[in-house]
Backbone:
């Protein structure tokens, strides 16, 4: 699963325009049968390429994580958006994405009823909550494109997707939070995806194929150059999002971050052993206390508006996925860490409380016996 614990909540609705291998129309991806099921026609002015609207079924995650579900749903969607965008790049295509489109815009484009109307329009089915979209085209456009969701929103609701898990109170509560975070009148911001690493072997396609969430323990501190590259990949993945640093041990434990002026060596920003505290904050996952390095997405303050909370969680998941691919290419083992409780990094470092909360994490460790080059 994308974020190592989200219980596969993310659904993909494919809005297929001209120039694709599927006939134009709306489709829903069926993961059990690994096929795209047609749900309706395409508008006459459908943009070229495929727009993938990512929604979540909150019950799947809320059934296990309860009140902690909504951050995991956002993080998992960010991971899924990165998987789509990176797969497109690996096949020589162009990808752009939005993590801040309004829920009603995404809902209309996908041909879904709004979550508040879902049970009356499609009784007996489980509401889906739209969070993000990825637009894949065969090549980069010659000029900036308009929002591809607009044309798709002119079509009426399509056929309902396959039935999901039965609704539950926990899922409904998580859905209310997601709906509140996705209400905005601002236009969607689209930005171009880029590969997290270039000019080195193995290829991006190899990294995608071989990326795995490694089981604990993840002992073995990464080499400075590898850790710096992974931190830089997280930092540069999206045009916005939380800041990234990493907790390391060794003879000089502390926090480090990527420094553009010295790309081969992380820059130290704090001293002291942080990993045991991180293990407590991360739902008492004790193995983090000895992990080689723990990358942290942090910086979301208490007073952040709803739109920023949503965008930074989605961007954190996206950035962690890009960092994982870079780590895989450099022979490191990784595991995302999504559950954080009372993780006020800023206060722990002596700063004001409620200013620098940890949003996401990624444990990384050296691979002791072999690297990617042993399997070429």
Residues:
């Amino acid at each position: 699963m994308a974020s190592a614990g989200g219980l596969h909540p993310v659904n993909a609705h494919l809005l297929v325009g001209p120039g694709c291998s599927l006939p134009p129309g709306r489709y829903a991806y069926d993961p059990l049968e690994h096929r795209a099921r047609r749900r309706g026609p395409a508008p006459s002015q459908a943009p070229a390429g495929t727009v993938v609207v990512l929604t979540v079924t909150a019950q799947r995650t809320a059934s296990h994580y309860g009140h902690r579900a909504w951050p995991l749903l956002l993080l998992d969607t960010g991971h899924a958006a990165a998987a789509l965008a990176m797969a497109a790049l690996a096949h020589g295509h162009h990808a752009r994405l939005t993590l801040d489109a309004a829920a009603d815009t995404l809902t209309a484009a996908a041909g879904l009823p709004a979550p508040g109307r879902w049970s009356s329009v499609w009784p007996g089915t489980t509401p889906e909550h739209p969070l993000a979209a990825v637009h894949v085209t065969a090549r980069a456009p010659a000029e900036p494109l308009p929002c591809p969701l607009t044309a798709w929103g002119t079509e009426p609701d399509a056929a309902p997707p396959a039935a999901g898990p039965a609704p539950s109170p926990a899922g409904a509560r998580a859905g209310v939070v997601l709906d509140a975070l996705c209400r905005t009148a601002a236009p969607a911001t689209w930005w171009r995806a880029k590969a997290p690493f270039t000019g080195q072997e193995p290829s991006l396609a190899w990294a995608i194929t071989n990326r795995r969430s490694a089981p604990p323990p993840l002992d073995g501190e990464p080499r400075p150059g590898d850790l710096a590259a992974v931190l830089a990949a997280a930092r540069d993945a999206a045009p916005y999002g939380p800041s990234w640093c990493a907790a390391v041990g060794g003879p000089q434990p502390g926090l480090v971050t990527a420094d553009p002026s010295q790309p081969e060596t992380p820059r130290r920003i704090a001293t002291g052993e942080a990993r045991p505290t991180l293990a407590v904050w991360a739902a008492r996952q004790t193995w983090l206390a000895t992990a080689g390095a723990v990358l942290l997405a942090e910086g979301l303050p208490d007073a952040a508006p709803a739109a920023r909370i949503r965008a930074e969680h989605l961007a954190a998941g996206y950035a962690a996925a890009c960092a994982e691919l870079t780590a895989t290419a450099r022979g490191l083992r990784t595991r995302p860490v999504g559950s954080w409780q009372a993780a006020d990094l800023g206060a722990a470092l002596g700063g004001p409380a409620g200013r620098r909360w940890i949003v996401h994490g990624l444990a990384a460790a050296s691979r002791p016996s072999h690297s990617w080059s042993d399997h070429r």
